[in-house]
Amino acid sequence: MTKQTSPAAPEEAGHADTADRDEHIAPAPRVSVQAFCESVDTAAAIQAAGEDRRMAKAHLRIQMGGLTAAIEAYQSSPTPNVIILESETRSEDILKALDQLANYCDAGTRVIVIGRMNDVMLYRELVRRGVSDYLISPIGVLQIVRAVCGLFSAPDAKPVGRVIAVVGAKGGVGASTIAHNIAFSIARDLMLDSVVTDLDLAFGTAGLDFNQDPAQGIAEAVFSPDRIDTAFIDRLLAKCTDHLNLLAAPATLDRVYDFGADAFEAIFDSLRATVPCVVLDVPHQWTGWTKQTLVGADEILIVATPDLANLRNTKNIYDFLKAARPNDRFPRYCLNQVGIPKRPEIKAADFAKALDGEAMAIIPFEPQLFGAAANNGQMIDEISSGHRTAEMFRQLAQELTGRSEPKKQRAGFFSPLLEKLLG
Questions:
Q1: What is this structure's pTM?
Q2: pLDDT at 156
């Protein structure tokens, strides 16, 4: 057993799993995890944790029998990357069994212990023996997810980037425009290095919206999976602003864009490792890869216009993702193009009733503003920074990134002078 991280102090570990769904937990890499449980409740919690999207790459195996079964199993077989051990015995028995198990553990194996005792002396002895984490039962699903994923997040490592997926409830609802404006605001107003990724390879508009025509983009990556790494992806990015880069779609029809469910996984992993925020412009289609992209995102925003088909589709997407991501924040939605003259519309209150929640934003129909931005290859904030719609995008950026306040205000004309005077 090797010590990788300090276990939680007993008084903290003893709490029930109160982690908020909003918590950002980095996904686990491809590792093997074996659990030896003594109680059915703990086994059920670990099984549920293994089905969490952040544990998708981990290969989980659960057995009953606790420490005794683990010692017996590893006398004749190699140990996995992570062992989860539950014991309901006394502290002395736990430590004695761990000492015996240590004789069979391979170097680098991380051990998580689950016990019933809130004992500081036991905690210190576990730390001394190199146990990576100590959890006090009863445990919750997110406690297991956090413990396993946390083993592979070094304290001095850069935070894994947050992935925000924006998808339309129907085609033509303006989801791409909203995704691009949110990404722009994240970069400009929150000063977060970001990448906006256009996943509509045949008809994507991100290049047009940002007035970019890069020679390479996401197609080079998805059709060359063996070459994908952070350096390769970095060469494909087009610079939009100081903090925003674009991974553009080719928007050509010279080939067919049929992909497997895992086609974009390596690309997203590389982006996560290089920037704090990735905004995915997901096309309105239901395929294996779009489904997996949405399920795997940290935040999901569904864009809808106020009509019956949009309400139905939004609810279908919402209900599916809510069930597929039980330990995550529920998907959010916003209403776009609200207030078109003479068009019958479904009220925002009806959307809220059907979806058990208010829209993140209700964006009014502003054809001149959005048309001018589209034709100029600019964002709404560049066309009219003080417009109420620009402020909506700033608020969406803050909420989707978990930042209640902008990291740094944009400098005004007299800022350098003021800094000298105040310094």
A1: 0.79
A2: 52
